[in-house]
């Protein structure tokens, strides 16, 4: 089975040449009909201008500049991806543009329906017409969103590059540090030998101890200063880059600038009915408080306090008898 | 977007959205379920040609008493498996919620309760394998539990998370300490007693009508009225509206819990179950009628019948 399909994969269905005869053969497809043929066939047939597809019963007129490499081995997938790309170019509204999630979901469903129709050839004309009408009606919005998308992509790319640069720097520093350490070690050894050579008889042990202590001190000093300077340089450059990026982002006008600023938007809610204390008398939780395992896992008795107090006040002010009256009859069996 | 409170958070949960009702709603739901089941069973009887029998259907109160009896059974079984109280409480909630969707005349609680307990153990992260589970129970097979599992989960609208009053009681145990550090002994005693009252509350309908913190406060108030009064005074003294509402709620919860504290008599349960037996087997009624006629001669057939149903009930549950 495998062998057969392999051979089929490597034979051009138009000229029947295979990769054995021409190892550099590449296959191309056209987005009109997705029929596969080799590069030389494309050159041969379409160099003179548009011509019909050589597949029997196809007859679609193809142009040379519309041929492309096949990315997916399954033609159906290839085709769906193309359709998706095309539709997404037109229907590029964003979540922020919708007042509610359900509106957004309705819109997404509409888009998916269009894609499904085009992929499965249901109501193709009607769908195409809708696509065109939408494009004509929303030309401005589409362009704005497209530029927004490219900007986002650029920002992400920038961040990625910065991160990679930072990692490279860190690696270089680590390498340098380890080299310096080795150098120091060698130096200490040299010093010890020198001390030993100069020391009088009977005092050798003492002399070595003194030399080692002195050497260790210098090592530590050098290490910490090296680390400090390394950290300073790397963070400064990274922070500067991030800052400049944020600044450029602020400078470019946001599409949502015209909305009124909502002061509560980013404010975190804190229940003022209670505060979580540091310690309570609680025989149930003693075992957590004293457990090394819990502490090692980053879990503490305070987490339990928080959870219990949260549950004690969650829904305290929900008076079902008053609140549910307006929903009367909404619940059916 | 405005910051939402913890109360709003609770309002988004399934316990509030799907399983919280006013008292009036709750009774109307139960009536509807009862009426719906009676209509359905009547149709079934008619299709079997048994509609000539004078079948006595269960009333809403009788249904509720039977469910309550089986809630007690859940409690006993949880003891057998040594399950912690929140698992037991979840199982009882499932059983009570299930019978807001179906009538006991459609699904007998003696079958549903095992599935509820099994499902609750799973949902509360206290898994017992089905083999271990059935080993300890007589007349129960893995199949009999699992075939009802989906029915139960569906009746629960797949909302398996249940908030109980136990954690809030513990939370108040901590918070009252920070308000009255010197009354620690009193608080400890109240906490232990309140857990018992919270357990009693599972048998009432308070979980449908009040939120867990409210039930917790009521349970604590039942344990030590003065302590909670002082605590609420300190805590909510400035918000007199809220304080008043909370006091009303606590009073109501106490009434509901105390109302349900009475024991169900075994005779009543047996009588209800006998009725239920004839609802699902109307053919037997015809036979009984014949027996009754015969009992004019031989007086104790009916008595034997009653005894048999009672035996069944006890051995099966």
Please tell me the overall pLDDT of chain A.
Answer: 80
- Uncertain runs of chain B with pLDDT below 50, 5 residues or more? 296-308
Biggest sheet descriptor of chain B: none
Cα end-to-end separation of chain B: 53 Å
Shape estimate of chain B: elongated
Number of strands of chain A: 5
- Count the beta strands of chain B: 0
SSE string of chain A, helices as H and strands as E: HEEHEEEHHHHHHHHH
Adjacency order of strands in the biggest sheet of chain A: 2-1-5
Global shape of chain A: flat
Q: Under the CATH scheme, which architecture of the largest domain in chain B would be assigned?
A: Orthogonal Bundle
Which radius of gyration of chain A do the C-alpha atoms yield? 36 Å
Give helix % range of chain B: over 70%
Largest β sheet strand count, sense and barrel closure of chain A: 3 strands, antiparallel
User: By helix and strand content of chain B, what is the structural category?
Assistant: mainly alpha
Helix content range of chain A:
55-70%
